[in-house]
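Following up on my earlier message about phosphoenolpyruvate. Here are the inputs again, as you asked, copied directly from the submission form:
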Amino acid sequence: MVQRLIVAGNWKMHGDRAMVDAYARELAACVEGSDHAGVGVWLFPPAPYLLSLANALAEAGAKEVSVGVQNVHEAASGAFTGEMSAAMAADCGAQLVLVGHSERRTLFGESDELVAAKARAVIDAGLTPVICVGESLDERRGGEAMARVRAQLEPVLASLAAGEVERSVIAYEPVWAIGTGETATPEIAQEMHAGISEHLLARKISARPPILYGGSVKASNAEQLFAQPDIDGALVGGASLAVTDFAGIIAAAQLKQNRA
Ligand code: PEP
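Thanks, got it. Here's what our run produced:
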């Protein structure tokens, strides 16, 4: 069962084995004994470190932190050199998979349809997809932000049953805010999250999945973002690489959880 409030860290292509061990110990010390029940803490390290991070977290006493991978291939197996299936990720301890991150879409040419096929493969492997959507700066300036996000969601909604969407997680990540230091204002983020919720409701997704915000989230802006009613946590890139920064974002989610 997916938690309602989630703080997820995407390490992208950063880190090494030494970081994995130190990070697990430090994070365990931060979350241990803290009142974070009800807040999901998820980490997406580079795939080679998945198993060692899962083991290091368990050894350090942070068993409740879940791990996942940043990408999978849409096929279950085959002659796809360099790729990894969702079932393989599950076999190595993944519970979660990022799908359609904007860097996959823009740098690796992933189409909306491919993203939907990957979401399907993740569900079929029994894992939880974190389906990333978000508009570019030009699309926002052109007044097309919501239309773009709806267009990204459509193939996913066509490929997953309503119950499967309800068991997934959506991450709204405006491309112009990822890794740029520029964050969407809480009002812009709330407007987009509410728009996504309405769109899902109109498509008969009655129990809407958690919708995370992503784009330069830091400990200093997380509380304001989380104060918005339709923001259910964050997908964090840069600020997830240092435990103290990441722990500050988890603490902001705990505040929201405690107020609920
Ligand atoms: C991300 O990688 O999903 C992300 C939001 O990155 P950053 O927090 O660095 O903007």
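One observation from looking it over: The beta strands are 5-10, 39-44, 66-69, 96-99, 128-133, 169-172, 211-214, 233-236. Hope that helps, and feel free to reply on this thread.
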